[in-house]
Amino acid sequence: MIELQPATLLVQLAVGGLAFTWLTTRRRETGLGYGWLMRSIFGLLAAGGAWLGFATDSVPVRDWTAAATATAAAAALAVSVVRRRAGVSGQRERVERRSAEIAEMTGIDREEQRFDRTKAEFPPILDLIAPAVGLIGVVAGGLDAGDPAALAVARTVIGAFFLGAVTDAMLLGHWYLVQPGLARGPLLELVRWTGLLWLPELVVMLWPTGMGSVLSGTIDDGYNGLLGWFWVACVVTTAGLVVLARAALRERFYSAVMAATGLLYLGILTGFGMDLVARVLLDTT
């Protein structure tokens, strides 16, 4: 039996989300607010995982590393806030370039946003500390989930990154409403990672004892196989939504970003269905 534990799930979401937050912030293109939002959301999830773990069925390594993950995310957030006047290099260059273009066309020299070049920027490497620490807790949660241990750890770790990628992609898509001049590169990267992680996520869920046993009827889902086919629908639909989101982002119009974001919103639902429905059903084996 491989048990689905709510505390482990929260730690998974925190670690995957924070890992892909670093993937985006390292590009130095998104505004500071994006990093603040992501560190706050996933830091709170890590703290919630630690609290839930300590309060229920505690796994000390998982729970203490979850607390450390939340602390590291809070520390990175604090450093970013302290250094906010430096801005972000990519965003700063874009704002200065646009201000220069406006000045050339209108003769009005007005900088849209002031940055202090004498201040040090937030170092993106700090965003790696929290998920690196949290990954230890994810592995510990997988080991505690049951046997076979290798399969349990694989499902837990791959699930963490798969769910983190699709969640971050949806949140970043919404961030374009706040920062409409942002290039599509960061979002394309997250969509690409979601697609790449779809296959290993599918493989570990099919690996025996896996969803193949549910579909064949060896494992009774309690609904005459309906939940097994619902999982299949989630698998196929998730892949389709990723492909459509990627296609939408090829269009030049800004509305294409919003279309991709809507598709990713659905992708979260089907992606979580692909992971959680399988793990709930296999929890009974």
Sheet-strand content, in percent, reads under 5%
Tell me the helix content. over 70%
Q: What is the radius of gyration computed over CA atoms, rounded to a whole number of angstroms?
A: 21 Å
The major β-sheet equals:
none
Layout: helices, strands, pairs:
Layout: H1 6-25, H2 32-55, H3 60-82, H4 89-106, H5 126-145, H6 149-175, H7 185-206, H8 211-216, H9 226-248, H10 255-282
Helix pairs in contact: 1-2, 1-3, 1-5, 1-6, 2-3, 3-5, 5-6, 6-7, 6-10, 7-9, 9-10
Describe this structure as you would to a colleague:
- By secondary structure, the chain is mostly helical.
- The chain is 74% helix and 0% strand.
- The chain contains ten helices and no strands.
- The chain has helices at 6-25, 32-55, 60-82, 89-106, 126-145, 149-175, 185-206, 211-216, 226-248, 255-282.
- The N and C termini lie close together (5 Å).
Short overview:
By secondary structure, this protein is mostly helical.
Salient structural properties:
about 280 residues; mainly alpha; 10 helices
